[in-house]
Amino acid sequence: MSTTISEPAPPTTHPAVAPASRNVRMRASDAEREDVVRRLHAAVGEGRLDLDEAESRTTTAYATRYRDELAPLVADLPGGGPVTGVPTWSWIREALVWRAHLLVRGPDAARPTAAQCRTAVRLAWVAVAWFVFCAVLGALVVGA
């Protein structure tokens, strides 16, 4: 009795899970749209765009569906490279400090410096540590 081992059949893929072709357009995320709008607002603040142009581009940014439609909106601006959509920690920190700065000093306040950002983050950590300390101390007092 002889047994022959046949070659395994090549794997087949279902059309729904076939590898994406290079021509597939990627949809833009809300974070990517917000990144473009943030760049446009910065350009207005620097005097690179007037309000009408910024409004037009902002409207277009919020209406886009695909990533490749976002890049031309900031291509003629400094730092107008590819839209990543992922904010950096320094950008998040600066955005939080900026919003707090505006609440305290009003809409005419200047942009916070790096030293002010670092101080604000340290104060936030101290506030969180104080809150945790008080919560633990309160739980110990109530439990005793």
TrEMBL record:
> Which Pfam families would you find in this protein's record?
DUF1707 (PF08044)
- The residues covered by the DUF1707 domain are 26-78
Q: Which domain of life is it from?
A: Bacteria
Transmembrane stretches, start-end? 123-142
Q: Which UniProt keywords apply?
A: Membrane, Transmembrane, Transmembrane helix
Q: What is this protein called?
A: Uncharacterized protein DUF1707
Organism of derivation: Pseudonocardia endophytica
Cite the source lineage.
Bacteria, Bacillati, Actinomycetota, Actinomycetes, Pseudonocardiales
